[in-house]
């Protein structure tokens, strides 16, 4: 299921030019500016812009031959630090077979058309620099190996935009390999469509590239180091007055006014903003809840958004917008208020919640959780065209 990386790592000298900003933080205008002014950016392998991506193969050949990326084979440890949060993982190749046999478990719905687009991009450019983020239940044996590695200075360090990314080469990894082989299951944190795209690519005939396509680039993180946020919800009300919808909710749920809420709600609590006021309400548990239906996001949908706000399909309803939980609630409220809407804030699912849903083959409601910080793209590179470092 898991094997060491056979690919490339960006050189320290080139890292600042190559490593891409976090995609979720990148406005299309800024993306286009970087592509136009920085010929070394790994965005050429990531962008959805067809014209820019058409240069991806040329970019790949250049950066893997001119020293921008250096060949490497073996285990790597990767650490990302943002504010007071730090998480350390192992850079690996994981098998498509493990994904298809449910040893790599998912919690999000994937769209076949999007997965095929990902496969198209991989096939066109010939490689990937954006690892899938996977979770494993922490293992003291792995912790011991990783802890010994990071006690030394890193081989690579990049500090930018409030984030520190570091990488260490592990020279003797036999013990680590055995410990990783014993992991019973991995859980996708970020990269559901990248995983599905890798699976789609494997099933396309391409002589000579079968082994390269049989695995995809990933970083494995212990569950104890993962950080989750919720997604906020902003419901636009073009056909109703916010006060009327608020009154309908109040008939079923006692509303308690809040003054300047900060942080996150308690489990089972929802913060609701209408016009100039924040309220708190409690979501009752059902009598027969499984891991998915017990999530606060699911209970909000089933108890309020669906029956009281006519949101039948939270994945497709154009009135419902999702805002990452990293956005402060006062900014959420201001933006939603300008559009005569209601804001909803829920407690984030825990990592245990995510794994429990995945273990039963469940799918979480759309935009239930936001893992942060995001893995940097452009530090490691893996080819899918049968050529390696």
Write the layout of secondary structure elements.
Elements: E1 2-3, E2 5-10, H1 15-18, H2 28-37, H3 50-53, H4 56-63, E3 69-82, E4 85-95, H5 96-100, E5 104-105, H6 112-125, E6 127-128, E7 132-136, H7 140-150, E8 156-160, E9 163-170, H8 174-181, E10 186-190, H9 192-202, H10 210-213, E11 215-222, E12 228-229, E13 231-236, H11 242-250, E14 256-258, E15 269-274, E16 277-282, H12 296-309, E17 320-324, H13 329-338, E18 341-346, H14 351-359, E19 370-371, E20 380-383
Parallel strand pairs: 5-10, 7-11
Antiparallel strand pairs: 1-4, 2-3, 2-20, 3-4, 3-9, 4-11, 6-20, 7-10, 8-9, 12-19, 13-17, 13-18, 14-16, 15-16, 15-18
Q: How does this structure look, described?
A:
By secondary structure, the chain is α+β, with helices and mostly antiparallel strands. The protein folds into two domains: 2-226 and 373-383, no CATH class; 228-370, Conserved hypothetical protein from pyrococcus furiosus pfu- 392566-001, domain 2 (2-Layer Sandwich), CATH 3.30.1760.10. 31% of the residues lie in helices and 28% in strands. The chain has 14 helices and 20 strands. The strands form three sheets. Strands 1, 2, 3, 4, 5, 6, 7, 8, 9, 10, 11 and 20 form a twelve-stranded mixed sheet that branches. The chain has a six-stranded antiparallel sheet with strand order 14-16-15-18-13-17, with helices on both faces. A hairpin with a 2-residue loop joins strand 3 and strand 4. Helix 6 crosses helix 9. The radius of gyration is 22 Å and the shape is globular. The model has no long low-confidence stretch (mean pLDDT 92).
